[in-house]
Amino acid sequence: MKKLVLALFLISVAAFSQDMTVINGNFDFLKDQTEINTEFDYSNFTMMKEKKTESQYVEEHKADLDQKAKGNGNIWQKKWIAAKEQIWTPKFLEIANIVLTKAGKNLNFQEGLNTPYTLIVQTLWIYPGWDAGIMKQQAKVTTHLKFVETANKSNVLLEISSEEAPGDQWGNNYSNESRIGEGYAKTAKSLSKMILKKASK
Questions:
Q1: Dihedral, CA atoms, 30, 94, 106, 39, nearest 10 degrees?
Q2: Residue of 187, 146, 180 lying closest to 57 (CA atoms)
Q3: Do the Cβ atoms of 95 and 185 come closer than 8 Å?
Q4: What average pLDDT does the segment 127-139 reach?
Q5: Is the whole-model pTM more than 0.90?
Q6: pLDDT for 130
Q7: From CA 137, how far away is CA 167, in angstroms rounded?
Q8: Counting Cβ atoms within 10 Å, is residue 74 exposed (0-12), middle (13-18) or buried (19+)?
Q9: Would you say residue 10 has pLDDT above 80?
Q10: Please, which residues bridge with residue 201 across strands?
Q11: Handedness of CA 91, 93, 96, 100 (dihedral sign)
Q12: Is the C-alpha dihedral spanning 47, 52, 54, 56 positive or negative?
C-alpha cells in the first residue's frame, strides 16, 4: 500500500513538473526597472504529441466537433482565436504582476509600453489536455522567454526556456482554452519567482 501511495505521489509530482532554464544572459538589467514592455508571439507553434501545426489542429478539432453537432466547429474556432488575447495573454500578465507585487517588487509587465526593455513571450508548443469528469489531464505550454532592448531587439539580454508548464484548475475545467491559459499563468508565476530570486537588490 505504501509503495502504491509513493508511486502515485511521484506520478503527481512528475505531472506538475516544469523545466525553466536560463539559456544565456543574466538578470542584472532588471534591478532598477519598474516597467517591462511585453509582447506575445503566437505565430509559429506546434500542438499535441504529434507536433501538429496550429492550423492542422484547428481543422481537425473543428471537424470532430461538427461530427458531434453541426456548426459547433465554427463556434469553437472563434473561441480559440479569441483565447490568445482574452485568456492566455491576460493570464500571463495578471499572474506575473500579482506575484511580484505580493513580494514587494516594484516591477510591472504590460503590453504597449515605451520602456527600455521588452519581454517577448514566444509560444513553441501546446498540449491542451482534457477533462472527462472523473479523469483528466492538464494542459502543457512550452515557451521561449526573451528579454531584449526595445530600441534594438537584436540585442538580447536574457533568454529563458520554459518547458511544459502545467495548466490545470481545481475541480473540473472542460475548456481547452482555459486550461491552456493556466499554463501561461504557471509560466508567469515561475518567471516572477525567478526574477525575485535573481534580480533582487
A1: 30
A2: 180
A3: yes
A4: 86
A5: no
A6: 86
A7: 9
A8: exposed
A9: no
A10: none
A11: negative
A12: negative
